[in-house]
Structures are given as C-alpha cells and as structure tokens.
Specification:
The model has no long low-confidence stretch (mean pLDDT 88). This protein has two domains: 1-198, Up-down Bundle (Growth Hormone, Chain: A); 207-442, MFS general substrate transporter like domains (Growth Hormone, Chain: A, Up-down Bundle). It is globular, with a radius of gyration of 22 Å. The chain starts with a helix and ends with a helix. Strands 1-2 form a two-stranded antiparallel ribbon. It is mostly helical. The chain has helices at residues 2-8, 13-33, 36-44, 48-64, 66-76, 78-98, 102-129, 136-164, 167-188, 201-212, 215-231, 233-236, 238-246, 252-256, 258-273, 279-297, 300-307, 321-350, 357-362, 366-386, 395-400, 408-441; strands at 311-313, 317-319. The longest helix is centred in the C-terminal third of the chain and has 34 residues, at 408-441. It has 22 helices and two strands. α4 packs antiparallel against α20 (366-386), α6 (78-98) packs antiparallel against α7 and α11 (215-231) packs parallel to α16.
Length: 442
C-alpha cells in the first residue's frame, strides 16, 4: 500500500519544471488581464468601448488558438515550442510597458496571444505524457492547483504594483515572470514527446469544423456562453466599476481573487455531491445561480441605505457597500462554476467520437471564445452609459455620474436568466430525441 502510494506521487523532473513555468506564466497573465481594460484606457488612451473590444478579442484568441498551436508544437517538439512561447510572451509584456501607444499595443497583444496559446497546449500536453494511468489523476490535480495559485498570486501582486508604482509597471512584473520561465525552460526542460507526432493543422481544422457542425454541441456552447459572459465581468467591468465608484484605493485585483478561492474550496465537494445527477441538470443548478450573482452585485444601494458608505466587518475593518456586494456576488459565481465547469467538460467529452476525445476537449472552451467577445464588447457600452470615464466628465457631472452604475448588473442578470431557461429547454429537447433513438434502435 505504501509503495503504491509513493508511486502515485512520483513524477519525472520535466513534470515539475512544466508546473513551475506554468506558475510563472499564470502569475504573469492574470496580473495583466485583471488590469488590461484599465491599462488600455488610462495609459494607452482608448475609450471604454475600444478597450473592451480589444480586450475581448485578445481573450477570445487565447481560447481559440491553443489546439492549432498544439498541432504546431507536436511537429516542432515541445521544447522548441515552449522556448518560442516564453520568448514571445517576454517580448510582448515588456513591449506593453515600454511602448504604451495605440499603434504599438495591438500587434503586441497579438504576440502575447500567440505565445500564450502555445503555453496552454504544451503544458497540458506535458502533464499528459509525463504521467501514467496510476499518477494521472494526482498529476492533473497538482497542475490545476498550480494554475490557481499562480493566478491568485498574480492578481494579489498586481494591486500594490498598480497603486504604488503605476499600471505600466504591471507589464514589467509580468515580463519578469516570463523571463524567469524562459531561463528555467532553457536550462532544465527536456522534450516530453518526440516531434512529428500528434495531429496536423489540417486535421485540427477538420476537427474544429466537425465540432461547430454538431448542432447539439454548438447549441450547448451558445447557451453556456451566457454563463461565461457574466463570469468575464470580473475582468471586463468590475475593475473600472469599483475604482470609479469606490475610489483609486479600491483593489479589484483582490476582489477578483474571491472566485478562484471559492472554486478551490468547493469544486471537489460539489462535484462529489452531484456525481449521480446528470451533467446537464448539475449545470442547470449553476446557471440559475449566475443571475442571482449579478443581482447581488446590483444591491449595493440597498446596503448603503442601511449602513452608509462604510460596512464594519466583525469590527476588524470596514468596506464600502459596493465592495461587499461584489464579494458576495463573486462568491455565488464561484459556486455556480463548481456546478457547471467540470460537468460541461464531462458532457463535451462524451459527445466526441472514439479516439477524438482530446481534440474535442481542446475546443471545449469555444464558449469562452464567444463570451470574451460578447461579454467584453457589451461591457464597454454599459460602462460608457452607466459608469463613464471620469476624465471626460465636468465637476458638475461627476456628482451624480455613478448613481445608476449598479444597473449594469441587471443586464447580466437578464442574460444569465435567459441562458438558464434555455438550458432547461435544451435538456427537454435532447432527452426526447435520445428516447426516440432508443425506441427506434430497440
């Protein structure tokens, strides 16, 4: 028993190196991403609408490109691929810091997007080929723990850097993280798989076409996009919303960390409790929690009428009512994610033809591709309407400029409710179709 237990924790050096550089990469990415709309508006000079669309397309590319980058990495070898990736990321992050100009930022974000897409595919691929059937479950649990720790710490460091040094400095922090990763890879990372293996770009593209031609899958992807549109507001709307309504001292980076904290604590428990419930039904529970999360975020005026602009937290410290309601809303988002994300991947993989499970899972984040574009895009218009950039307001306009800022969350609550109802209809229709097929085959 003891020997088997030891073997389940034994991994080759390349596995640990891959996890270490994943930590660096996630810390770099989330430090940037939590502040990307602020950077594009406050430093580069884009308005809220343009900064939202640019950020959304950047995020969308990071969800669409990894399967194609993975096909390239399979051909050239993981080591060359990961060195290329961290070189591009380092160039990109430092360029964002040194050249905060409109014409320079767009190609720079494309460089980061390409580099990041290689990382997503290579690191997950490395974990897969450096674990055995016996060690795989623990290998992936360690990997996801590292991902969450990196994301958590990246956002944690971003707040004091932004407040004490400035938004541009976050780019240099991220660039330093990826340089450390590049040095680690160059000296310690060995190829986890021989080059020339895996699917070609043509095969990957053909798989993508098969997935988007699958009516059931694409319908589910569109429905779940509503959930992720709300989830993306942690990065699209919340940073500007809380800084403009609460003040420059607010820490949206730390508020956003509530989500991964809740997921880390509850995802295993909730997945275990719902294990005998069908995947779509578990997802439906989460889908109905999401509009509640958005409504909760809108309730700060109600709390403010009771407490004033300062809420005492157990007598230890105080928070603004807006911060309090954002935290409660984000906690609900984290719980919703626990019901949805693991079961969505399960459902998606079961729709894949035999032998194509990996390819299908590679495209399982198409909902985030759509929700990045739509969620960020909508955010820009809502901020402009209800929570405008203070630099474009007169002193008189600033007095009541944010009185209706909370109404932004009503739009996302409506999107969440429509998506939840749509998922119930989807479940009813697909269940009937499956029953008819069973009757015909019998």
């Amino acid at each position: 028993m003891g020997t088997s237990e030891n073997r389940a924790w034994k991994f080759p050096a390349t596995f640990w190196i891959a996890n270490l550089v994943e930590f660096f990469e996630r810390a770099a990415y989330y430090a940037i991403f939590i502040s990307i709309t602020l950077y594009l508006t406050n430093v580069v000079g884009f308005n809220d609408i343009w900064s939202a669309w640019i950020s959304g397309l950047f995020s969308a590319g990071l969800y669409l490109l990894p399967p194609f980058a993975g096909a390239v990495a399979d051909k050239i070898g993981f080591r060359k691929g990961i060195i290329l990736a961290f070189s591009l990321l380092s160039i990109g992050y430092f360029s964002l810091g040194f050249f905060p100009y409109k014409m320079a930022v767009l190609p720079t974000l494309v460089i980061i997007m390409i580099g990041g897409s290689f990382i997503k595919s290579i690191i997950t691929g490395t974990v897969a080929v450096t674990t055995t059937e016996e060690t795989r479950a623990r290998g992936y649990s360690l990997f996801y723990m590292v991902v969450n720790i990196g994301a958590f710490l990246g956002k944690t460091f971003a707040a004091p850097i932004r407040i004490n040094i400035g938004l541009k400095a976050i780019n240099f922090f991220s660039g330093t993280m990826t340089i450390l990763a590049l040095i680690t890879v160059y000296f310690f990372y060995k190829n986890a798989i021989d080059s020339g293996k895996g699917k070609s770009l043509k095969e990957t593209w053909e798989g993508f076409i098969r997935i988007i031609s699958n009516a059931r899958l694409i319908t589910l992807i569109v429905i779940v996009t509503g959930f992720w549109m709300i989830q993306h507001q942690l990065y699209a709307t919340m940073p500007k919303y809380v800084i403009r309504t609460v003040g420059e001292h607010a820490k949206p980076e730390w508020i956003a960390n509530v989500n991964p904290a809740v997921v880390m604590v509850f995802v295993v428990l909730i997945t275990q409790l719902m294990r005998k419930v069908k995947a779509v039904k578990s997802m439906t529970v989460g889908m109905f929690i999401m509009p509640l999360s958005a409504l909760t975020m809108s309730l700060s005026p109600v709390l403010e009428k009771v407490t004033g602009q300062s809420v005492s937290i157990f007598g230890l410290f105080t928070m603004h009512p807006i911060t309090v309601m954002l935290i409660f809303g984000i906690m609900l988002q984290g719980l919703a994610e626990c019901f949805i994300s693991p079961r969505f991947l399960e459902y998606f993989s079961l729709q894949a033809p035999k032998g194509e499970e990996g390819l299908y899972l590679g495209f399982s984040h198409l909902h985030s591709f759509l929700s990045s574009i739509l969620g960020f895009g909508l955010s820009g218009y809502l901020l402009t309407e209800y929570c405008p950039d203070p630099r474009y307001l007169t002193a008189a306009e600033k007095v009541h400029a944010y009185d209706k800022a909370y109404m932004i969350w009503y739009y996302f609550a409506a999107i969440g409710l429509i998506s939840a109802i749509a998922l119930i209809i989807f479940n009813i229709v697909t269940t009937r179709i499956d029953r008819k097929k069973e009757i015909v085959s019998a």
